[in-house]
Amino acid sequence: MAEASVAPGSLPPVQAKRLRSLRVALNAIIGLLFLQFLMGMWANLFASFPSPGPSPGQGFGVVSLIMSSRMSVLMVHAVTGLVILALSIAAVALTRGQKQKNLVLFGMLGLVSVLVAVYSGYYFVYSGYTSGVYSFVMAAGFICAIMCYFFDLQFTLIRMRKVRLLN
Has residue 128 been placed in a domain? Predict the structure, then answer.
């Protein structure tokens, strides 16, 4: 019944705030994905990865392998990936209650793409930095994520114009 008292062409205040927050989150995700790309390319082209040794083990073994590599770009790359994952989850949560299904669809596809990139990045390190397949899948997850979040941002801006939150 709360929506019945809202003027036509506008949103309830809670949904309007979520839509504004979604726009901020999507801009942050896209910016961080751009930085993630640059750091990943730097690591791919210029980093000398530690020689593969015994398997680092699951979980914290991989984290310790990254931290012991003494490559600050690789460390920041890993942490940035986790921040992108957290923002992706927040972006999906912010689409709750929005009537435009494209927002939900592209948000979910973006989250799945980020999960694929994080998973494959984890196993790329776990492989001793030798698995070209995991490196490729990580890059494919990045490309899919940036496309999904770009479209999600465009649909968010269209929705914001439609309900007069943007000029």
Answer: yes
Comparing 70 with 18, the larger pLDDT belongs to 18
Instruction: Output the pLDDT for position 120.
Output: 93
**CA end-to-end distance (rounded Å), the chain:** 28
SS (H, E, C) 138-156: HHHHHHHHHHHHHHHHHHH
Domain assignment of residue 24, given as a range: 11-44+60-162
Is 3 among the domain residues?
no
Domain holding 133: CATH number? 1.20.120
Q: What is the pLDDT of residues 56-110, one digit of tens each?
A: 555 555 556 666 656 678 888 888 999 999 999 999 999 887 778 899 999 999 9
Q: Output the DSSP codes for 10-79.
A: ---HHHHHHHHHHHHHHHHHHHHHHHHHHHHHHHHHH--PPPP-S---STHHHHHHHHHTT-HHHHHHHH
Rg (CA), the chain: 19
User: What is the pTM (predicted TM-score) of this model?
Assistant: 0.83
Q: Give CA–CA dist 2/22, Å, rounded.
A: 22
Q: How many domains does the chain have?
A: 1
